[in-house]
Amino acid sequence: MVAETLEHLSSILEVDFAQLSEAGKKPENQDTLGAKIPDGTTLTTKGMAFVTADGVSSSDAARQASQTAVSGFLTDYFATPDTWSTNRSAERVIKSLNHYLWGQSRNSIYGQGHLTTFTALILKGSTAFSFHIGDSRLQRIRNNDFEELTRDHSQRMNQDTVYLSRALGADISVDIDSLSFELSVGDIYILTSDGVHDYLKRNDWLSLANEFSTNKDTWARKALDLALERGSQDNQSIQIVEIKQLGAATETEVVTALKQLPFPPPLTVGNKIDGLKVEKILHESERSQVYLVRDENDKLLVMKTPSLNYDDDTAYIERFVMESWVGARISSPYVVRVVTPKARSYLYYLTEHVSGPTLAQLIKERHPIPIRDTVEIIDQVIKGVRAFHRKDTLHQDIKPGNIVIGHGGAIKIIDFGSAWVAGIDELKVSFERDIILGTLDYSAPEYRYGGKVGHLSDQFSIAVLVYEMLTGKAPYGSSYRDAKDLKHFQKLQYNSALRHNPLVPQWIDRALEKALAIEPEARYNALSEFIQDLKRPNPAWLTPRERPLMQRNPLIFWQTLAGLGWLAFVVALIMLLQ
Length: 578
Description:
Elements: E1 14-22, E2 31-36, H1 40-46, E3 48-54, H2 62-77, H3 86-107, E4 118-124, E5 127-133, E6 137-142, E7 145-148, E8 154-156, E9 162-164, E10 177-182, E11 188-192, H4 194-197, H5 202-212, H6 216-229, E12 236-245, H7 251-258, E13 272-273, E14 276-284, E15 288-294, E16 300-306, H8 314-328, E17 338-339, E18 349-352, H9 359-366, H10 371-390, E19 393-394, E20 403-405, E21 411-413, E22 420-421, H11 422-425, H12 446-449, H13 455-471, H14 479-482, H15 486-490, H16 506-515, H17 527-535, H18 549-552, H19 554-577
Antiparallel strand pairs: 1-12, 2-3, 3-4, 4-5, 5-10, 6-7, 6-11, 8-9, 11-12, 13-14, 14-15, 15-16, 16-18, 17-18, 19-22, 20-21
């Protein structure tokens, strides 16, 4: 089904690849090589991966360490969510592997060290990503120019002794050198262990490339033989990857993939599509229609359909198709669930129906919302938004109209039309993507002044919700709408919530002011910190009247306590004397 695939983003990346690993002059090969070139959607969302690991020979479990690193990475990287960015996926897996190897060394009965170098190359779309620890290397030949892309993490003590300054499994934490760069057709990437690259120079690589460019297997064989001739005493490993084709599908190909299903016509109450009967028109706009429908099992669902105004707009169609793809990957009791229909003859998607008012309706009818109710609702909103963030996804349109209050006060976040997905954003397309920003009054200022957009942008929108629930007003007044650049935003003044609702505690007002800071770095580092300050007073923000006497004036507190103690003693003494 179109709404559940990335067929329109299918990668056309092709490579010519060869690899070879041998023990060389050593009795055991402690190097490990690995590669995975998937197809279909996995190639699109995760790319292809090539890994070289050189077990540290001074450690007893060098071979096991390198094998664990390579096999573990190739398994776990491709198992990470396809919404995650390449950097997040790779670094999360590498750090997990490092922790495992470090634990194996710590728990080994015989004190075996599980240490290895690690260099990975991931090719995704038209971009290359590298992740590097130790002294294995990634090198590139481009336009007859040879370049080392990684830096050895080693320290030479003398002519014969070199110590690794960084290795996978050496410590509980690990620093990873990561790079990303654009690919070009004809690029040749070479991953090697030190038993090869320590004995070959720039001209050797260029000569091998010119002589054996059409036969990578022979090239690999010749490189290892040459290193042996030059005196290599170590294990030898090499991977050679040449970029043969890259790029995204053409716009014509994209349109063909996206338009496998036609747009449905405008629907009225009583109309049916694929056995789904329209019960009510919930929303209509220039961009889409939303209907309450009933399926053949008498279950109510919500159907969203694209607008015929955009039936020839590639960017719009991609954005609509991606909505259900995003929604299907967010699993949370606080986010509306995407429902897969049995059959589909038109382009639309379905979600569960949540019976209840939107937060916008609740605010209109009841504001100011009691503080306890506000915090309970926002606690759920934050849990739902964090489900997006765990998938490296931003909702980008948190507003009262996109939050439905269901049975018993349980909330559901709806509408994925503005969502941004890190893993998809990395994929380049042959057309300009449709970027839908959130509703102006609720979107963070960085969207308009060109600042860094991220998780803290959703935090701003949530804080606007809290402010509106407690006051019925906007935190920066009407001037917020008119601001466009950073200079104008910095002139805005936060209006204390107490001005509109004196029942708001000072400490909640201070929490809102922090979460609503114009510049993201001044906000909370995490949503968990924000909700904590909404639930419990931050001692640093309590007013003198609200703070306990011991915090306001410890000296008076202890003097008073001592005085009361003496008074009690005197009273007791008098009673005894009587």
